Amino acid sequence: MTDEPAKPIRVALLGCGVVGSAVARMLVTNAADLRARVGAPVELVGIAVRRPAKDRTDLPVDPATFTTDAAELVTRADIVIEVIGGIDPARELLLSAMAHGASVITANKALLAEDGPTLYAAADAAGVDLYYEAAVAGAIPILRPIRESLAGDDVRKVLGIVNGTTNFVLDKMDTSGAGFEETVTQAQALGYAEADPTADVEGFDAAAKAAILASLAFHTRVRGADVFREGISDVTAADIAAAKAMDCVVKLLAICERTTGPDGDGINVRVHPAMIPRSHPLASVRDAYNAVFVEAQAAGQLMFYGRGAGGDPTASAVLGDLVAVARHRVAGGRGPGESAYADLPVLGIGTSTTRYHISLDVEDRPGVLAQVAQAFAAHDVSIETVRQHIPANSATGQAHANLVVVTHRATESALSATVDALAASPSVAEVVSVMRVEGA
Amino acid sequence: MTDEPAKPIRVALLGCGVVGSAVARMLVTNAADLRARVGAPVELVGIAVRRPAKDRTDLPVDPATFTTDAAELVTRADIVIEVIGGIDPARELLLSAMAHGASVITANKALLAEDGPTLYAAADAAGVDLYYEAAVAGAIPILRPIRESLAGDDVRKVLGIVNGTTNFVLDKMDTSGAGFEETVTQAQALGYAEADPTADVEGFDAAAKAAILASLAFHTRVRGADVFREGISDVTAADIAAAKAMDCVVKLLAICERTTGPDGDGINVRVHPAMIPRSHPLASVRDAYNAVFVEAQAAGQLMFYGRGAGGDPTASAVLGDLVAVARHRVAGGRGPGESAYADLPVLGIGTSTTRYHISLDVEDRPGVLAQVAQAFAAHDVSIETVRQHIPANSATGQAHANLVVVTHRATESALSATVDALAASPSVAEVVSVMRVEGA
Q1: Which domain of life does the protein's organism represent (chains A, B) (predicted)?
Q2: Are residues B184 and B302 in the same domain?
Q3: Does A55 lie in the same domain as A123?
């Protein structure tokens, strides 16, 4: 570095909601530290907002900083930070920013999972940086460790709780015994769930994050649409109670697995609720906290834990990226670009292996257990435990029993064929619930 | 990147012990992936060893790769990986490597804590990289998150279990009830402790790691010698039992704290055994696993967990650094250099605040509790709980009682003056044990 005063780094901020205002505030209050760490002053040249009339006097920035012309703003910055979310207009703005020579930092998981390669190609063409640590698991440094710290290792599995809303809902269902609808209403009242909670409760948000994690972990393009996705809206109070009986909790998990087996080399990426043992470290992840397990060939098991959402935590991740990108502006160099050389096939859910917890309402007569066991054996699914419970008073007058079967690990296709066979069996009155079991 | 075949990156490896041979093996077996991730072939041009006669046929490398001339080897490499440890000759070799234009990757915590600034200055003068993720907490990506991911945030505290040997010993003392000496002997037999366990059990290893963590977290030069250090050799079976009675475990903690108080702005860096509640996430860290908590202004609490030692886990960290450094060779740019601009004073242990668990053998007569309480009050130390236990049969014939006092948070100087006053008090027969309490 020379002794000449370094040219300021011009930063444009797109969006000024919870995350955007936290970013703006940190840019101002941490200015001296940022300058020392970057080697040049970092200057907030503009904040694009949709509603200029909104009162933002609590932010320590000149009112003239705000603009509604995002398209113009991105043409006069060295670094553009995007925290507006959604596909459009975010995509056009970021592509224009890069075409104008700006590096880009985004927290936009939906856009990255939908069209990441286009962003990477634009960054490459313009010779600029594309960073997005804040897009997955908020404040937790998880993308940089996967794409840099583990770059010499061979990642085998990523398993995490990456959505705070569903975690809050499942946690509350576990402690209160209440049903899904009731708990979501409560979460909405507390601000933990949005008015339209679909993206969270149906697993779209977690699926986008899983796609990003899998892309980096396995050096393969994975889109959100490639991810098997099952939300938590079908999780019942009975499922939670069944998990409790097993000393388990139900969590919405994002799972990315590298598979090498008879079904071929590839990767499995899925998001679904699953039982995990209460003793598992992920079981104690509460509220808006997130946690991600990473298993690599040489490193073994690693866990990362921290706040998965919120203005300040997300802003922390954005500012970390900002320092990295700004350093490149000052001292040269570029961060890692897209790494998709492995180009592994994304395998269908049928080939992934898991364990099932199946609760059945069966007739209470000799031979039923044998028939049920036969349905499993016919599909090569090995049973780990069977518990039978005969209700004291059968409401129907007919003798029924509740049968809970936990399987060993088997492929999804074998497990789901087994469940179909059970549902069609005359001995089975009802398949009460089916849930995957992970982490055991 | 161009279509021309990229020039190979020449890697020299210093040391071929547990970590070195894991690095060599990964360099060979992961060669195709490394080439794709770096953008050029990575070629192991030499391994410096002390004992060339040793059988290393299990390693998939050409025997001609081995050399005893480390000084010559470092002059013909683009990247030098040092895993021999200790101050000399590691320092001279790394300085020579950098003077000859090589970037350096080292796992040498002792050297970094002793003389990091000299290494950084040499890297800066030569325009090369200095990376050392493997020096702290093995496979856990902790340095890169602190120096890069949290670069825009304000780290307030780092608290971790960073030494596997002491963790194994304390863990075994907790489960077996055995004493320190006996457990160390057992750990040596199992390969968890070295023949001379001083560096581990007296906290030197953890202090070096604490110095590195504090330097990065607080942008201030901290040497191993600046770290307050208390090992575990004075931890008795009685201390462990006292911790159990409080539903706590004893762990050797490395603590780095940013303080802003009446005693001034500065940092506190210390390594000592402490009780932590059994419910605290660090309490369940077993054997050779490490875990590090980081608290930052905006990010909040983060935790990182994984294998803290061992050949493969440490090699994973080394190879991650290798990919980063090699990418710079191929695509330009340099990693972060030394950041010591904050230059905060390293405060003495007296100003740090903690809680104490004090077990006293006192006379069993009226007024004693009041005198003990007065000793605390006189030094402004607030008492949280007092428990008194009168043994059924006093061996001395005189009436004695055991008094356990747990304090609120106070400065070390006030706490230690209190303990001195208690030891001098005629009502106190013996100060049985004093232990810090953290994480509550």
Answers
A1: Bacteria
A2: yes
A3: yes
